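Q: Given only this backbone (312 positions), what sequence would you predict?
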């Protein structure tokens, strides 16, 4: 539904190593009553408690199988079971997701009270939810790895009230029927006529779109294929430009490269994450991204929550 709130909790924004103020990767997206986790590094449960966003999780999407992106799942699954969860939980990810979930089951076999499922995704794979879709796309991290696009269904166009009245539609229930896509019949000046939704409804409007790259080198062609006009791009920015050579060596991106990606896809907001533990001050990250991207640039601290609104 178009009225659902859409919130992003940055529960973990560190690089491979945690710091006193940053935990390993964990992004929570909450849309209405649905909660999805994208990566789940160690300490994710404590971050959930500190952020007061609860332990309700409907699905987990893992970008790749480096430990800083999945170690938190072990403890989270145990806690969900301890708290009495009975609904199945599906973990989505690239190649090796089935082996990972089998390992989880072996570790949890004596006390897990719900079903754990695994679904392997690849470039272009998508998962359908109520009102939105999550699509995987290939990234470049030296191993099987995916980014994810969270995209809502298109919204109906704007309702032209004045035009409806002009066509003889009285304010009231008939307005709602037109907005729901129904054709109606009305009487005006003694003549009966048909009014179709396209007479009074504008063009469909896009839903909200969030793109999360996980760890990756710059992959602008892939982002152009899947992430154009994103409301929020959450991009690897492990290093600043002084460490560009190291970024290439370890299959990561710099803040400037993240900014270039955001500009290429015309994102509204860019959030820089996976910050290396070598940086205690991220002002340079923000400045480098802003030099190439005119939109909003954030270097969110852990537990920062961003509400994503609709484009006009």
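A: Predicted residues:
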């Amino acid at each position: 539904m178009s009225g659902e709130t859409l919130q992003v909790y940055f529960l973990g924004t560190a690089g491979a190593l945690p710091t006193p103020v940053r935990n390993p990767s964990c992004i929570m997206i909450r849309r209405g009553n649905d909660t999805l986790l994208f990566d789940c590094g160690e300490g994710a449960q404590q971050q959930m408690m500190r952020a007061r966003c609860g332990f309700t999780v409907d699905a987990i999407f893992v970008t790749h199988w480096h430990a800083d992106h999945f170690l938190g799942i072990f403890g989270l699954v145990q806690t969900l079971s301890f708290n009495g969860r009975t609904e199945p939980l599906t973990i989505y990810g690239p190649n090796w997701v089935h082996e990972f979930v089998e390992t989880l089951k072996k570790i949890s076999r004596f006390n897990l009270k719900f079903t754990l499922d695994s679904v392997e995704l690849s470039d272009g794979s998508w998962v359908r939810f109520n009102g939105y879709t999550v699509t995987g796309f290939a990234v470049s991290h030296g191993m099987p790895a995916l980014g994810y696009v969270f995209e809502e269904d298109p919204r109906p166009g704007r309702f032209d009230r004045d035009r409806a009245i002009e066509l003889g539609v009285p304010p009231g229930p008939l307005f709602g029927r037109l907005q729901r896509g129904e054709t109606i019949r009305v009487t005006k000046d003694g003549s009966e006529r048909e009014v179709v939704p396209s007479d009074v409804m504008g063009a469909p409007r896009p839903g909200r779109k969030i793109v999360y790259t996980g760890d990756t080198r710059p992959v602008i062609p892939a982002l152009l294929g899947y992430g154009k006009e994103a409301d929020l791009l959450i991009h690897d920015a492990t290093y600043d430009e002084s460490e560009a050579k190291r970024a290439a060596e370890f299959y990561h991106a710099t803040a400037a490269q993240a900014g270039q990606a955001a500009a290429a896809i015309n994102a509204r907001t860019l959030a820089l994450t996976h910050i290396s533990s070598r940086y205690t001050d991220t002002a340079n990250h923000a400045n480098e991204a802003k030099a190439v991207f005119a939109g909003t640039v954030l270097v969110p601290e852990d537990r920062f929550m961003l509400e994503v609104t609709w484009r006009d």
